[in-house]
Structure formats: C-alpha cells, structure tokens
Amino acid sequence: ILASAHDAAAMMHAVEASPPDLILLASGLRSVSAVDLVAVLRTHSYFRNVPCALLVEDAKGESRAQYADADAIFRRDADTFILRSRLLMLLERGRRERQLRAMDVSTGVLTHAALLRATEREIATAGRAQSTLAVIRIEVNNPIRLRLTRGADALDLAQRILARAMRETLRQSDIVGQLCDNVFLGLLPACDTSSALSKLAALVNVSS
Q: How far apart are the first and last CA of the chain?
C-alpha cells in the first residue's frame, strides 16, 4: 500500500484508502524515517489505536526504534515463525480493540466516532467508483419529553428498538450508526433514491 507513497501526506491517503488492522513499517519514505512515520500515524484519530510494528535492519536501528511509539520492533533477521506469531497476536488484538471501540454495546450499531469514519470512507469509495450512496436519517421524537413522561430508561429503550429495526430492515452491506442520543444514520452504498425511500418506508412501519 505504501510503496508508491513519497511523503507522509501521500502515505496517509494510501492507508485511508484501505484501512488496515495492522501496520508493519519496513522502511521510511524519501524524507521521513520509519520511526517518524509511526509518530505521524499516531496523530491520526483513526489509526491511533491500530497496532503498528517496525521492522529494522540491525541493532543500531533497533536502538533508535526504541524511541518510537510502536507496538512492536522486529529485526529483519528474526526467526520467521516467531515474527509471524507475534504479528498475528498484534493483528488479533487490534481487531478486538477496534471492534469494541467501534460498536455501541447497548444498541449494537456503530458509535458516533466510528460512524463518522465509516461515512468518510463510504463517500470516498462512492466517489472513486462513481457510484451512489444513500443516507437515511431516523430519530427518536422529543427525547427530553420522553424522559420526563416515561422515565430515564425510556429513551434507552427507544434507541435499542430503533437500532434493531434498522439492523434488521437494511441490507447486510449497509452501515448503521448512532450520530447522537436520538439520531441514527443508515449508509446505503450503491442504493438509488427510489430504493432508499422504500427502505425508509419499511423502517417507519417497523419502528412505529
């Protein structure tokens, strides 16, 4: 992915185009070292928690890499089996952590931050493919009044019902997330206006 990148900005665009579960840096760019690239990645909200490993040439490189904010440092002459095992452990850890952060436990849909990242990704994908992307917005009416008249747990219950309705009604390829307390979005890749309106009507019937 990073082979054609010439600077840190190009590298970030390349990684964003294909979000990874693990980043392994074997060398730097023309003007930025691999150690500095780790620092660049750590400033990005999306990749801050993606496991990042450094592959260094020798003991000198290993010593310098100790100052990097990397999750692991490997020598190029390391045993292949050990290297593979540790990378797989990092990969699995990264997947688990990202899944926990991205999914709201109560509703089973994407959190606010994860939804924003997914929206950016889907917009970029639709742009590259010159395809359509429909967005459905559904919200719980009068959340403050709902809390006052039905109790503190009423809004939580309404959120769960609405989220479940969206998960069950939309396609498996669609993305559902919670924008704020009472607002949910559905991202429908390759979906035209007519199909999106049909899905919206089905959601209204299910959740009403």
A: 46
Q: Please tell me the distance from the alpha carbon of residue 11 to that of residue 5, in angstroms, as a whole number.
A: 5
Query: Does 191 have pLDDT greater than 80?
Result: yes
CA dist 175 and 186 (Å) reads 6
For residue range 148-188, what is the model confidence (pLDDT) as tens digits? 888 878 888 888 999 999 999 999 889 999 988 789 999 99
Q: Give how far Cα 45 sits from Cα of 8, 84, 108, 115, Å.
A: 15, 27, 22, 13
Q: Is the dihedral of CA 58, 61, 65, 71 positive or negative?
A: negative
Q: Supply the angle between the helices 153-169 and 193-207 in degrees, to the nearest 10.
A: 140
Residue indicated by tokens 């760019």: 29
Burial class (CB in 10 A: 0-12, 13-18, 19+), 134: buried
Does the pTM surpass 0.70? The reply is: no
Residue 123's DSSP bridge partners are: none
28-63 pLDDT per residue, tens: 555 567 667 777 666 665 566 677 887 777 656 555
> What b/e string do you get for 161-185 counting C-beta neighbours within 10 Å, with b at 16 or more?
ebbbbbeebbeeebbbbbbeebbbb
Alpha-carbon span 139 to 145, nearest angstrom: 14
